[in-house]
Design brief:
73 strands, about 5% helix, Leucine-rich repeat, LRR (right-handed beta-alpha superhelix), single chain, nine-stranded mixed β-sheet, mainly beta, about 950 residues
């Protein structure tokens, strides 16, 4: 006996007794293929000790069916027939056994059996099998390891709906297979199942399968988060980001095994796990890993014989990478984050790469290889410049323009395949490491706020730069030795311009806004084409360590008004043509030399006023062009101005005219200040020398600077609306039109008059104090008021009626009045004839009048009436004077009735002849008689509405029977 075929795949010493076989030498035991460990199981059986060789063989079977193949029973049926037996196909009898419609069931005359699996290696290396159709096998669950391995003629596989498992190498090296369809119920598809299938280009999955799906012919988990298997014969040689679903998180082990056509793989942002997927990728030359990858597991880099380039976007070099002792991988260029280069040069394995450079990335705007590349550096959702984003991105690579474009257009944001938007907020260092062989322009997207050190250093072909309105930082040597030729204006909000930032460029005009907090001393050196430099902050005149090498001395340096001397005295800045005229932005971003509208931001803190939100506050400022332009003749100031610098649209609330803003703009005849609803300040000499004819300072304005309206030779009227907290500079008006008048609220007139009186005088101009007049506006519902102002008034010219009190009848307790056409300075009067909320400008008479005696005493400032022996205050409602209690203070600009103690006696009320009835004339018929007694009684009884002032006959403050008695006594007298 030389050979024994034993079908039981799980023999034991109890099922095979010792001595069952002869002790012949050289015997071979052939065991079943129905169990992966059938040989190991056999070696444990004592009865098989005499077999020198144990092998698996198709003949070690229970049934041989010529139409269907060889089978081993894997589960015996119950004797009562209640449970069917199960069997495993361990080999084919004929090459077409698996290409018929058999159901896979068999009855051996005793019991029923179902075929539930195709055993491991069942058809191993059968080069004659061409088609496998398993649709009829309704109980088939498993296709074993290497079941069809090496079946090189196999070109078609059709699975049945019952199949659950497809094991390792099940169809390995089936080189004729071109497609493979995964049916509904497959739940375990081993990635190695199709290893070596060099022509397998497509794997498809039934839409009813709940475990897998296919995308572009590649096998994925149902939720598309795991790449399970790329078919080895996949025809695409380059996998760009768009080749993968946006949901991808993991690339499974063996996912690209033996994909020999694949040359380059660029994994998309979002992938986290790369689990040794590249075995046998003989053509793979380039790999790109995004920053989201956190797990590389074991990748045998050394086996990738053509791998020359890796983009690894990890700040910290990953550990656990193995080269292999006989590595043939070229390991030519490793791209890592720019700031991590040194760390990789020192790291195990990574240090073996020939070149280690910056340039690793996460995202590109398209699938072109030579395009702008970006890294996602924040996943924090936030609102940036009014728009919502999932995070922030940074430009890390710009290709040579000869293979890309002559315009590097950085977008506002990137939109990933999953729909998430990331704002592009930065440009990294050394982004143009690949060189620049043609002229190019860099255009910043709206959200770029930072350009880091050395970004384009030495790129002499970079000739254009278009900034945005949100940039805040430019790093050291960022544009060092470029040739940027267009004018540059840093936007307001910019904070730091580092040393060497624009060293040796070609622009002619450069603007540094007032928001800057750090200015590198060499940032503008060797700009020998520079014609105009604007520095809108006096602070930078303090340092003397600036490097202004090669900047022409003919360059105009515009600085803020008031800082010219400081810059001229600076040993470096003073070599340039220093002059006043700096600004942050111009109207409509106009050429500063061709507009009269130059603005400086005074506050960059956003605010909301009247429901409108502004980026901050700003003021109109001086520029030499203001004086030289022949037009416009009207200055159209507005409530807000929009900073359109670099395409921006920041709206600023206009609150000031800066010092000398429109000085000597003789073309100006009108400033439309009424449009500037929130004017807070008018600076020194702001309108000096203009030809404006009228100006109204709104109530919102709290300061008028020195000489603000001086030498405005056509200015005839300056109207100061009331602001009790306003401060005034010296000589804010003088040398104006011959008929000039300055009007201020009459209550504030005296205080300003005192200040103006201290101004220097000149025989060549009128005294300014004599040009300061009051205006009056009453809105308390009254028709008569007491009044005083500290200058003579022509009441007729002013449109009001004015009366003095020229007499007093002690017996009748009535003050007599006299209408006055003109009154002298500080003469107290009663005025009437005014309309509510109407402003009346008080005109001066040609000469100071002399008035008769007047019992009304004006108080130009608030006074305590305790200073006077007898004083009466006017009641606007009932139009009489009443005696106040101790401590009463008058209002500024009012008047009170002053009597002697003899005149006053015990009188508490004084009536006025013009508006009061005779004492006792209750009913107002001009006589005092018994009818008035009746009227008074009716008042007491509540049946009439005569005024209390008329009915209080005895002056005790109450209306009662004692007043009737007093009235009767008056009649009897």
């Amino acid at each position: 006996m030389r050979s024994v075929y034993y079908a039981n795949a799980t023999p034991s010493s109890t099922s095979v007794e010792p001595g069952s076989f002869p002790e012949n030498s050289g015997m071979t035991l052939y065991v079943s293929k129905a169990h992966p460990n059938s040989r190991e199981n056999a070696r444990k059986v004592t009865a098989f000790d005499y077999f020198s060789t144990i092998k698996k063989h198709v003949y070690a079977s229970d049934f041989i069916l010529s139409d269907h193949g060889y089978f081993c029973v894997t589960k015996a049926p119950l004797s009562d027939g209640s449970t069917r037996g199960e069997m495993s196909l361990v080999g084919v009898y004929a090459d077409d056994n698996l290409n018929n419609s058999w159901s896979g069931t068999y009855n051996n005359g005793i019991a029923d059996f179902d075929m539930v699996e195709i055993a491991d290696s069942a058809c191993l290396d059968n080069t004659n099998i061409k088609n496998v159709n398993l649709t009829g096998y309704s109980k088939l669950r498993r296709i074993g390891e290497s079941a069809f391995n090496g079946c090189t003629a196999l070109s078609s596989v059709t699975l049945g709906q019952s199949v659950l498992e497809i094991n390792d190498y099940a169809f390995k090296n089936c080189s004729a297979l071109t497609t493979f369809n995964v049916t509904n119920n497959v739940s375990d598809f081993a990635p190695k199942a199709v290893a070596g299938c060099s022509n397998l280009a497509t794997i498809t999955v039934s839409s009813l399968n709940t475990h897998y799906c296919d995308v572009n012919g590649i096998l994925y988990s149902k939720d598309k988060t795991v790449l399970k298997r790329c078919p080895p014969g996949y025809r695409t040689t380059i996998f760009n980001h768009s080749a993968f679903p946006s949901t991808l998180k993991r690339v499974d082990v063996h996912a690209f095994q033996t994909c020999e056509k694949v040359e380059k793989i660029y994994f998309p942002y979002g992938v986290k796990d790369i689990i040794n997927p590249f075995q046998g990728c003989k053509s793979l030359s380039t790999l790109q890993f995004p920053s989201t990858v956190t797990n590389f597991n074991y990748i045998p880099w050394g086996e990738l014989s053509k791998l020359t380039t890796v983009y690894l976007n990890k700040q910290t070099p990953p550990w656990g990478m193995h080269v292999g002792s006989n590595s043939s991988a070229p390991r030519h260029t490793l791209y890592v984050p720019d700031e991590a280069i040194e760390a990789y040069k020192k790291a195990t394995y990574w240090s073996t790469w020939k070149y280690i450079k910056g340039g690793a990335y996460d995202v590109t705007t398209n699938d072109a290889m030579e395009t702008l590349r970006y890294t996602i550096h924040s996943n924090k959702a936030e609102t940036i410049n009014g728009n919502s984003y999932a995070g922030r991105a940074m430009l890390v690579y710009a290709p040579d323009p000869t293979v890309y474009s002559q315009t590097y257009a950085v977008p506002d944001h990137l939109t990933l395949a999953n729909g998430k938007k990331y704002a592009v907020t930065a440009i990294n260092s050394n982004v143009c490491s690949g060189g620049m062989r043609a002229s190019a322009t860099l255009t910043l997207g709206a959200n770029v706020d930072s350009i880091f050190s050395n970004a384009f250093q030495g790129k002499t072909m970079l000739t254009g730069l278009k900034l945005n309105s949100n940039l805040t930082y430019i790093g050291v040597n960022a544009f060092y030795d470029c040739r940027i030729a267009n004018d540059l204006a840093l936007p307001y909000g910019f904070k730091k311009l580092s040393s060497g930032a624009f060293y040796n460029n070609s622009f002619k005009r450069f603007l540094i806004p007032g928001s800057l907090i750090s200015l590198g001393h060499t940032c503008l050196a060797r700009n020998n084409y520079l014609e105009e430099l604007v520095i809108n902050d006096p602070f930078w005149a303090r340092s003397t360590s600036w490097d202004l090498t090669k900047i022409p001395t003919s360059c105009k340096l515009y600085v803020p008004v008031g800082s010219v001397e400081a810059y001229k005295n600076n040993e470096k800045w003073g070599k340039l043509k220093v002059m006043a005229g700096s600004y942050d932005f111009t109207y409509n971003n106009a050429n500063p030399n061709k507009t009269i509208y130059h603005m400086t931001v005074t506050s960059g803190t956003p605010l909301t006023v009247d429901g409108v939100t502004y980026a901050g506050k700003a003021k109109y400022v001086y520029h030499p062009a203001n004086m030289t332009l022949e037009s416009p003749t009207a200055f159209d100031c507005t409530n807000s101005e929009i900073d359109m610098t670099n395409g921006g649209s920041k709206k600023y609330l206009m609150t000031e005219f800066g010092d000398s803003a429109l000085i000597w703009c003789e073309q100006l005849t009108n400033v439309r200040v009424e449009r500037m609803e929130h004017l807070e300040r008018i600076g020194n000499s702001a309108f000096r020398g203009t030809k404006i004819t009228q100006f109204t300072v709104p109530a919102s304005c709290s300061h008028i600077g020195n000489m603000a309206f001086s030498a405005c030779s056509k200015l005839s009227e300056l109207m100061l609306m009331r602001n009790q907290n306003r401060t005034y500079g010296r000589l804010f008006y003088q040398l104006n039109a011959t008929n000039f008048n300055c009007y201020i609220n009459w209550k504030d007139h005296y205080n300003l008059y005192l200040d103006v009186s201290k101004w220097p005088t000149s025989p060549y101009r009128p005294e300014c104090k004599d040009q300061l007049n009051g205006w009056v506006q009453i809105n308390d519902g009254s028709t008569v008021s007491t009044f005083v102002v500290y200058h003579p008034v022509d009441w007729e010219a002013s449109g009001l009626n004015a009366y003095i009190v020229d007499g007093y009848d002690k017996n009748k307790k009535i003050a007599s009045t006299m209408k006055m056409g003109r009154t002298s300075t500080a003469n107290g009067v009663l005025i009437e004839g005014y309309k509510q909320n109407v402003i009346y400008k008080l005109k001066r008479p040609i000469t100071e009048p002399t008035n008769p005696g007047n019992y009304l005493q004006g108080t130009v400032t608030s006074e305590n009436l305790d200073l006077y022996k007898v004083a009466y205050v006017f009641d606007k409602k009932d139009k009489y004077f009443w005696k106040p209690s101790s401590g009463y203070r008058t209002e500024a600009g009012s008047a009170f009735l002053r009597l002697t103690s003899t005149q006053a006696g015990n009188t508490t009320k004084v009536y006025i002849d013009r508006w009061a009835k005779a004492t006792g004339d209750i009913n107002g018929d001009g006589e005092v008689n018994v009818s008035d007694v009746t009227a008074l009684i009716n008042k007491i009884l509540g049946s009439s509405t005569y005024s209390n002032a008329v009915c209080d006959i005895n002056g005790d403050g109450e209306i009662n029977v004692s007043d009737v008695t007093a009235l009767i006594n008056m009649i009897l007298k």
